[in-house]
Design a protein that fits this description.
CATH class of one domain: Alpha Beta
Radius of gyration: 24 Å
Number of strands: 11
Number of helices: 15
Shape: globular
Structural class: alpha+beta
Distance between the termini: 41 Å
Helix content: 25-40%
Largest sheet: 4 strands, antiparallel
Order of helices and strands: HEEHHEHEEHHEHEHHHHHEHEEHEH
CATH architecture of one domain: 2-Layer Sandwich
Length: 381
């Protein structure tokens, strides 16, 4: 999808259309989650600090993320995908791989399928998508970015080198800033350079992954489209406008994050066997701590109890610190089930309180009810 979050906001609010817009945090401490194409002309990109975005474009407009709304739109889009093939591998709310090789006899050639998918997305959501059509996932992913927005780029086995060779090496997944700097020092800047470079230049950089890297530069990728991928972890985190120094304030934030993570686990009918806490200090140094949860669960109080203990232990090791970010996550995930008939407080789906809160939020929205302990004094009326 093209600038998905920002495009949804511009679709829903005519005032935002045609203007530089970002979706993201509300302060200079926040980051850009998505930027409209009008904002991108100023060099604004996702993950950019909000203060840098405003510096590039003082007239920039900002809206807060509405994740539940984007998820709803995403479901509609993925429903369209599955009208053409069951082999849909979602990468995020706005991006997916589709294997249509077994759909050709029903819907025509792959370009026709891509064109029809784009048409249905626009007709049903008033949004645009860019599609890459290629023999494999790697090249399709690269191609999908070559003709944005509202693009359709077709790469065949015959013209793969013609398309890939002039592109910068950074478009190959896994090649980051440090690797790019090392490649540049040996004269490698394009995919063609990477594909044709001698092993003596590549092996010091990629080691045992040298051949795999050369294969990628040659457009070779044999990974299948995996239509169902189990969640490895589920988490929530928050960067604060002002660094936290009081334990009470940290615990209040930790409770809210535990509730978000627990709710997301329950929505997916999962329980966590391990709880993690992520802590970032004001100097950006970041720490993680984790502990097993016995029995595995998805209740807010269960996750919060472990998370609070992990934070307390960490604070004993780091007295007097100021905290910029906190996160709570669950991993070692398994399907939710009743673990013990004689332990109703650990029933599948969370406690009765959790289930009641989930039901209210499902009907009236995520902001309809919340725990008073997660509120600041100035938020209580």
């Amino acid at each position: 999808m093209d600038a998905f979050y920002a495009s949804v906001e511009q679709r829903d609010d005519p005032f935002l259309r045609g203007k530089p817009l970002v979706v993201g945090g509300s302060s200079n401490r926040g980051v850009v989650a998505a930027a409209s194409y009008e904002a991108r002309r100023f060099g604004i990109r996702s993950a950019m600090p909000m203060r840098d975005a405003y510096r590039r474009c003082p007239d920039l407009l900002r809206v807060a993320p509405q994740m539940s709304h984007y998820q709803s739109v995403s479901k509609d889009i993925f429903t369209i995908f599955r009208e053409f093939t069951p082999l849909v591998e979602g990468l995020s709310l706005d991006e997916a791989f589709l294997d249509v090789s077994l759909s050709l006899s029903l819907f025509g050639d792959e370009v026709g399928i891509a064109t029809e998918i784009k048409h249905r997305i626009r007709a049903q959501t008033a949004l645009t998508a860019s599609v890459g059509v290629a023999p494999n996932k790697l090249v399709a992913k690269i191609a999908s970015d070559l003709d944005k927005p509202d693009g359709l780029c077709v790469v065949t086995q015959e013209n793969v080198h013609e398309v890939l060779d002039p592109l910068p090496a950074r478009v190959i997944p896994g090649i980051g800033r440090e690797t790019l700097a090392r490649l540049k020092r040996v004269g490698i800047e394009t995919i063609a350079d990477l594909r044709l470079a001698p092993d003596r230049d590549l092996e010091p950089i990629f080691g045992k992954f040298t051949q795999r890297t050369r294969d990628r530069a040659s457009g070779i990728d044999d990974r299948p489209v995996v239509s169902s991928r189990a969640d490895k972890s589920i988490s929530a985190e928050e960067t604060f406008d002002t660094d936290l120094s009081e334990v009470t304030a940290m615990n209040r934030q930790l409770l809210g994050l535990s509730e978000k993570t627990a709710s997301r686990l329950r929505a997916r009918a999962l329980v966590a066997g391990t709880v993690q806490v992520k802590i970032r200090q004001s100097d950006f140094s970041t720490f993680t701590r984790q502990r097993a949860l016995h029995p595995p669960g998805n209740g807010t109080d269960q996750l919060y109890g472990v998370a609070k203990g992990l934070l307390a232990d960490w604070l004993l090791e780091h007295p007097g610190v100021r905290v910029r970010l906190l996160g709570v996550g669950g991993s070692d995930l398994a399907a939710d089930a009743q673990p013990d008939l004689f332990a109703p407080e650990l029933a599948a789906g969370g406690t009765p309180l959790d289930q009641t809160v989930d039901a209210i939020r499902t009907r009236f929205g995520k902001l309809s009810v919340g725990r008073a302990r997660t509120l600041d004094n100035d938020q209580i009326r």
